[in-house]
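RECORD TYPE: protein structure
NAME: acetate--CoA ligase (ADP-forming)
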Amino acid sequence: MSALQLKELNKIFNPGSIAVIGASNKKGSVGYTLFNNLIGAGYEGVVYPVNKSAPSVQGIHSYRSVDQIPRKIDLALIAVPAKTVPEVMRECGESGIRGAIIISAGFKEIGAKGKELEDEVLDIARDYDIRFIGPNCLGIIRPKIHLNASFAPLMPDDGKIAFISQSGALCAAVLDWCHHRGIGFSSFVSVGSMADITFGDLIDYFGMDPDTGAIILYIEALKNVRGFMSAARHFAKTKPIIVVKSGRCERSAAVATSHTGAMAGDDDLYDAAFKRAGIVRVTRIEELFDCAEALDSQTRPTGNHLAIVTNAGGPGVMAADELLSQGGELAELSNKTIEALNACLPPYWSHGNPVDILGDATPERYRDATSITLRDPNVDGVLLLLTPVSMSDSELTARYIVDLNRDISPGDVFKPLLASWMGEALVEKGRKILESGGVPSFETPESAVTTYLHMYQYTKNIASLYEMPEDILTGFHPAKDEVKSIFRTLAKDGRELLTVYESMKVLAAYDIPTVKTMLAHDPEEAIKIADEIGYPVAMKIVSPQITHKTDIGCVKLNIQTQEGVRTAFEEINRNAGEHNPDATIHGVAIQSMVTGTGYEVIIGSKRDKLFGPAILFGAGGTMVEYIRDQTIGFPPLNQALAHRMIEDTRISKILKNGFRGSPPANIRLIEEALVKISFMLIDFPEIEEMDINPIHVNDTSLLALDARILINPGKVNISVPPGSDLIISRCPTKYNQEWTSPAGDKIFFRAIRPEDEPLWLEMVRSFSDETIRQRFFAPLSEIDHHMVVRYCHIDYDREIAIAAFVEGEEGYRMVGVGRVVILSDENTGEFGMAIRDEYQERGIGNKLVDIMIEIARDFRLRTIIGDVLADNHRMLKIAEDKGFKIKRHEDPSLRRVVLNL
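PREDICTED:
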């Protein structure tokens, strides 16, 4: 977080001194409440009121301006009229204040003039290196240090949740609601307009905050999506991030040119972005805290197969219905589990899942049934339901369940355990026992089921972040020049929409199989082409102005004869003329008909102003907008991410398993097509929308039957760095190079990718004990996937690792890696390096250091450092030769090498 100046954020959230600019004696005013909250909550820092006219505020000596305060101030809390905020910010900057919270309203939320004022404030803040929250915000609360730098009336309990909200009014309501429920916070932040500090900055800060265990977000709209995604992906694995996003409806109802444009709405893009970042999205405020508490107290489920243990059949059925309706599964109890339950339950128990242990269930019966069910390998989690009938004992049952939750026997698998003690007064004490014992308790079975499935979604999202992809496009070299030529011709003609003929040529340039397509300009040429292609054929109008061809009779299928071709040609042109007399007709496309069994899918894309290019996959055909079986992803895609996209559709079950005697589809071919489209969108930012629909896929082939591509002609001849509008950084190609070492080795250098996991693993396992000691400073335990993830799944906005490869008879081997990581608290990068033993002292390390210095300069770092064992004389010599200064380290066995850039 070097560029985000985390130290300055610390002055906002852990200030030693605060100036309240606009502090007031007028009860009921914002300035009065802010100052009163600060001095009345037990905050142990120093608070100074600033008021131009009052000699004292609430009995405390006041200052006319911040430059009169005799002490250096960490945080300025600003509550003055909007028009005076620029002047105040300048005074703060000149006084050395580097953190601010602007409570004042009257900025971009009021229109153009307010936006100009906000931009002026931001410019001043940047001139003085001030980081600020707001404007137009409620403020912040830090319960642990009794800091209430807000005008909210309540100080919540101390807790492990950081709550960050774009709505100040919602903050006040949530504070009241959580106070009643006893929910505590590590921090409570109202972000306001986010002119400076954004959600991404705050995720970075609280991701490293030891007092925060989970991060909760209320989002109305994002800005700086790439920074948000980078921060969320970096911390989501270790700290759950849970979000509720308001405004699920479309921003506009504009007519879309393509099916993808119509289906990939704003909320769909947000949903896909959250999923890609590892974030759990919920729909209601209460679900935020239910999910956060459950993830904090329980292990994450590895699957969605839930077992339900209940003393009443009705609630068990309600829970099962909710589970199935939300895409979960009822766990199939094993025979061993059934036998064990038979031994401890009355003979008339349900003998299945839900496990109905009957209305006279004792606490011991609950305990035994739950213990047995938890051990079933088919069960991913257990939900306990208790209704307060006269025979039930909610308190003792709760104590038994808490003990069961704590006492996990050796060899048992940790699984989530949730409860719903239904009712109010009769079960209140039991609920408190459960919650204090780490078992999440819910008022209704439906709430418990929803939380369980959110927990499982978190598991899936995190797994997709770090799943090892296969390298499926080795040797893929698209014909970019051919595509560029087509786009330049369109731009010259002032056209946006490619014809189907041109679109097919673009797809072919990216090695996506297309049905043979030829263009006919009159009936006789159409017949000649059809004879050449072979019957039956399909015929479609080719016109930039006609998009949905089928709807107006401009598509004819399964034409078997020459006369049929002639008739179809005439009908298609007549229908086109009647639909749009002014349309430019380029001709009629003649295609061979695809025969045999198979499935129709769609791959599309849409370039959004906020999210950049997005990729859509789903069930295809003419009914796509009505079926709406779709999923959305973002470039760059790899095989694993493409596979996840396919899995997230309903049609995936048919594609994988086949349907009514038809064999399954070749999933690998769909994955390859998705990844190729991902490359195309990165290479050509001028592509605005794309539909490849339908795509016919079966067990042996994939074939694009129709395509529509829309470009922005104004972007065609503009040089834009590839990937500059992506919300997730792409693997940089700048450092790709071939090099011959002084020893004659032919080495290829490039940035490491997730697909390199097997090569990295093989290299590290080949290291001698001495090489491991020099790189990791200690012996390595068993290397597992989680460790490899750290080194191969990289956010290229935060670090870059360059791998060195040599080609042998069995393919490429990794022989070395150099890595630069941006540190969290200053403009400094840390580097590290390791070389395979047999390739040491051959000049590779020297070359890698040169590349790492180049990377550090590209990151605009001021300093690059590295820790080296004091007896690693070869590395110290390389560093010294490159201009590094060798300094002492707090660990006497190490030396720190430092290069100022």
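COMMENT: Residues 763 and 814 are 6 Å apart (CA to CA).
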